[in-house]
Amino acid sequence: MITKRIIACLDVHGGRVMKGVQFVDLIDAGDPAALAARHAREGADEIVLLDITATHEGRQTLLDTVRRTARELFVPFAVGGGIRSADDAAQVFEAGADKVSINSAALANPLLIDAIGRSFGAQAVVVAIDARRDPQALDPVRDAQVFVQGGRKLAGRRVVEWAREAEARGAGEILLTSMDSDGTRAGFDCDLTAAVSESVSIPVIASGGAGTVDHFVDVFGRGRADAALAASIFHFGISSARSLKEELARAGVSVRLPC
Amino acid sequence: MRVAVIDYKAGNLTSVLKALRHLGADPEVTDADRAHVENAERIVLPGVGHFQATRRLDATGLTTAIRSAIVRGVPFLGICVGMQWLYAGSSEAPQQHGLGHFPEACARFPESHEKVPHVGWNSLDVRPGSRLLAGVEPGEFVYFTHSYKAPVTAETAAITHYIEPFAAAVEHGNVMGVQFHPEKSGATGLAILRNFLVWEGS
């Protein structure tokens, strides 16, 4: 039976995992390669590394980080941040990523999705969407506003129609972050996640708002998510992906165990 | 061990190379050099992408080189589209022939309420006697990402259920294929690749 994925996310800046430090490691808190290896060992189904600054100067650092992180990682590994062209993507793949996550660059130039998909396959293209409900809209959820530049600027697109376009252009997965829920630890936006998940046939990864195991149960059930990003939950009594998955299994969610 | 890893420009080889090196093999990428295939002790055909891309194997003469290596008994492993290529063809690219080592054809998952592609970790029901999957316990998980799949036949080495049962692995003497990605399937996947590297003719 296909299982729901728990994805560990590392936010890096200048080659180190940023403060916020979701996943404190006693030996080396800031090293992405060490943390990624630890998450894989502790049951994460996939690793996402996001370069949260993604400056032009930082690109070589990112590639070095990706190379080091990928070296001993034998679970799927996605990388996002600063990928603006098919050439950028090719370098990230060459460094060892299996997937790239693109966000603002895809909104600025939707053909980027087609281009990366053509060269590397749809399974290698994750389109990340940051969305906020629009109370003015006829349907505040399906017509949630899409934002770019880390949520600072309106993209002028609506979440469901953009997700559908991304799929049509050859995206393999959608990484959907609810800006309303992000950082609240009050639960994922299950309505938003379900609206997107039911509108596309590609997998949807839910992000933003996780605080308890029940939040994951909800987003996999009512939210129709295929995978969920776990970040700050590891601060709140859940010590690893494995223990999260053990609790999910007890709640009837199909997960990869033992892992 | 010299492992020829065939590059047919259908995606990313880095992960496969990394896993083979991790296991102590000496992979060599080849995109057109028949000599590499002819001298190899193992052949791996990875693949993430479109079945149409296998056309390049015919154009470069590698199809012929692989076919004769298989006849000589060189162990061959196809991964994902590389496994599908072992069959007669795929409805993904009806004009493009596969190797035809297995006479059946690959097809897209049927319409259902489930998502296609099938992405994520799913379990294997390993059939008794598989050498490639020796040691894999019932219900162990591996990572899949695909929309097309091979049917279950006598040569199927493991079955996975998604929408309907399909061949997660195929095995016929020295010719082996896996629909999942062993290079991305943690310890289970590495154990399967190790079985392939130590495989010896009976």
Verbal overview:
The complex is a heterodimer of chains A (259) and B (202). Chain A has a single domain, classed as Alpha-Beta Barrel (TIM Barrel). Helices cover 32% and strands 22% of the residues of chain A. Chain A has 9 helices and 11 strands. Chain B is of the alpha/beta class and 202 residues long. Chain B has one domain: Rossmann fold.
Q: Top keywords for this entry?
A:
heterodimer, A: 259 residues, alpha/beta, TIM Barrel, 9 helices, B: alpha/beta, 6 helices, 13 strands, 32% strand
Helices and strands in order:
The complex is a heterodimer of chains A (259) and B (202).
Chain A: E1 5-13, E2 16-17, H1 32-41, E3 46-51, H2 59-70, E4 77-80, H3 86-94, E5 99-102, H4 104-108, H5 111-120, E6 125-132, E7 145-148, E8 153-158, H6 159-169, E9 173-178, H7 190-197, E10 204-207, H8 213-221, E11 227-230, H9 241-250
Parallel strand pairs in A: 1-3, 1-11, 3-4, 4-5, 5-6, 6-9, 9-10, 10-11
Antiparallel strand pairs in A: 1-2, 6-7, 7-8
Chain B: E1 2-6, H1 14-22, E2 26-30, H2 34-39, E3 42-45, H3 55-59, H4 62-71, E4 76-79, H5 81-84, E5 87-90, E6 102-108, E7 118-123, E8 125-126, E9 141-146, E10 148-149, E11 156-162, E12 164-172, E13 175-178, H6 186-198
Parallel strand pairs in B: 1-2, 1-3, 3-4, 4-13, 5-6
Antiparallel strand pairs in B: 6-10, 7-9, 8-11, 11-12, 12-13
As for the number of domains of chain A, it is 1
Can you tell me the CATH topology of chain A?
TIM Barrel
What do we call the CATH homologous superfamily of chain B?
A: Class I glutamine amidotransferase (GATase) domain
How far apart, in Å, are the first and last alpha carbons of chain B? Answer: 19 Å
If you average the pLDDT of chain A, what whole number results?
Answer: 90
Indicate the radius of gyration of chain B in whole angstroms. 15 Å
Tally of individual helices of chain B: 6
Q: Strand order within the widest sheet of chain A?
A: 1-3-4-5-6-9-10-11
Oligomer: heterodimer
SSE order of chain B, one letter for each helix or strand: EHEHEHHEHEEEEEEEEEH
Identify the biggest protein-protein contact and residues per side.
A-B, 33 and 34 residues
